[in-house]
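Quick one: structure tokens for this chain, please?
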Amino acid sequence: TLPPNLLPLREGMRLAGPAFPVEGVPSVQLDRDESIRGILTMLGEVPAHHVVVYQTHDRGSAAAHLGELSATSLLARGCAGAVIDGGCRDIELVLAEEFPVFCRYRTPADAVARWRIEHWNTPVTLGAVRVEPGDYVVADRDGIVAIPAVLLDDVIERAEAIVATENEIRTAVRAGLAPLEAYERYGIF
């Protein structure tokens, strides 16, 4: 489970897809052209259906690591959304594009002059979770999970079984079965 302070730009947003991790660091006195070229090169390499997962290491510079033009570019490439342990800007325009973004904060401050991209499509860590390229990221109003790619089939199988059991429990509880009895009958609640 990724950090709970990564929130959707709007209630109801959700996303799912393989991870395309990105990592950078706050920086000062950047060459603007070199900085933006690195960011734009990364944006151009995100595969369709992937979720861009940013580890910005930004704890004080408050830069927007994604804005409307970046979101539009990613959407045009078929990207599934972005998870940013950092900031976002141009919120109304990003929302108008209906591009799913989960981030830590919002700011108008552009990252180009404040943040240096280090690498992409290599593992990153958000909170205590290591996200590898291709791990499956799912986000909704409950939060964000990253499922290791090697476990994806097993996790889907287990999740489907749990949902089926919870559907039975819901029906039984609505019919009057006490919660403890439901737990004793089904083994979960």
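The chain is about 30% helix and 30% strand.
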